Amino acid sequence: MKNKFIFLVAFLMSFAALAIDMIMPALGSIKSSLGIQSDNDTQLIISIVFLGMSFGILFYGPLSDAFGRKKSLYLGISLFVMGGIVSYTSQSLEMILVGQFLQGFGAAACRVVSLAMIRDRFSGAEMGKIMSLIMMIFIIVPAIAPSLGQFVLYYYEWQTIFALLIALGVLGMVLLKFMQEETLPVENRIPFSFSNIVSGIKETLKNPISRAYALASGFIFGAFVGYLSSAQQILQIQYELGNQFAYYFGGLALFIGLSSFVNSQLIGRYGMAQLANMSLMFMTAFSALYLLVLSVSGGESSLVIFLIYLGSIFLLMGTLFGNLNALAIEPLGHIAGIANSVIGSLQTFISVGIGGAVGQLYSGDVYPLVSAFFIMSLLSLAVIRLSTANAASRLRQ
Q1: Hey, what long-range contacts does 267-274 have (CB within 8 A, 24 or more apart)?
Q2: What are the angstrom distances between the C-alpha of 173 and each of 17, 70, 289?
Q3: Are 58 and 72 in contact (CB under 8 A)?
């Protein structure tokens, strides 16, 4: 039963990644087909998904607390499918952005409600282990999705990718119907009202531990969104990988899956907080070292060295994705839906701003991306250290 739950939650949470990663190999085709003038403008097709998620995340948590997890998921997946239909029929950049926004808004339900379902059933180290296992399965999606998108492009037009996303959304609703029971009993539901939502938002933001880990996850995910926004230009154009881009992109994603598995094995021994702290320190050090290498070489870096750097960063990212989110929600299990919405929305708004800026700063070298990982990991360390130091000081008093 637990294995089915892990598979279903991982599949549902992968919808946003599918909407982003499957379309990446098609950005060049979309640019030509829709007459988009700038390569940087095509980044909007990726970043708009995150913007849709940031608005949707704030909506679905309170909705799932009031009406149950499954009904909220049905609504979100329906909007995801609708967004796929809009994108499939798009004749302009503006219309495909509307479709991608809808897909992001719908996929937000899969993210925030799935996390609430995990919190409904698990807590503490067990929740952290379940999160790591789900992330391990979840990461397989971005490893496979670009290659799947590239395979579709060999035989069909880019619109077929959106047709496939529509089919996967329908499959998600069918699996949810037959594989998962409602995890939030009626007696534990919180009426959907403005005052309850405001109260939940205040409680979440006032909790210093949740706030610190939410900010840290937003900073780190912002650097990762910067990578997602510029990966096609860096790997496919700058390093001239062409159609091989999908395989390199997918291979790098597997590093995150590997570290998520390792994290699930280590979490009982070291704890989520210590693992996250160690990963942030190594990420800061690796990024500082690579910036030094870039400075000495005048900004030039071979593909091999760049891939070694990214592989090291993604090995660390796998421990951060699950642990930071679990640490942020851990103190707020009694309002898991609203808390997940607030934390997820804060994280996504921050990451969209950071990632969008990193993507737009791209001008033919990897300086903006590497600088983002360095600054954001250092900032995350500072926020967490300050919060835990203040908490320890209050306890001594």
Answers
A1: 267/125, 267/128, 267/129, 267/132, 267/323, 268/125, 268/129, 271/125, 272/125, 272/128, 272/323, 272/326, 272/327, 273/323, 273/327, 273/388
A2: 17, 10, 46
A3: no
Structure-token match 């499954």, residue found: 70
| DSSP string covering 277-334 | HHHHHHHHHHHHHHHHHHHHTTT---HHHHHHHHHHHHHHHHHHHHHHHHHHHGGGGG
Q: What number of helices (H) and strands (E) belong to the chain?
A: 15, 0
Distances from the Cα of 39 to the Cα of 94, 353, 383, angstroms:
15, 19, 35
Over the stretch 157-190, which tens digit does the pLDDT of each residue have?
999 999 999 999 999 999 998 888 888 888 888 7
Global confidence as pTM: 0.72
Element of type H or E holding 191: none
Helical axes 93-121 vs 27-34, angle rounded to 10°: 150
Q: What burial class does residue 49 get, using C-beta atoms within 10 Å of its C-beta: 0-12 exposed, 13-18 middle, 19+ buried? A: buried
Q: Are the CB atoms for 95 and 159 separated by under 8 Å?
A: no
With b for 16 or more beta-carbon neighbours within 10 A and e for fewer, the 77-93 pattern comes to bebbbbbbbbbbebeeb
Asked if 331 contacts 210 with a C-beta cutoff of 8 angstroms, the reply is: yes
Q: 297-349, pLDDT tens digit by residue?
A: 887 888 999 999 999 998 888 788 778 877 887 777 666 667 777 787 788 78
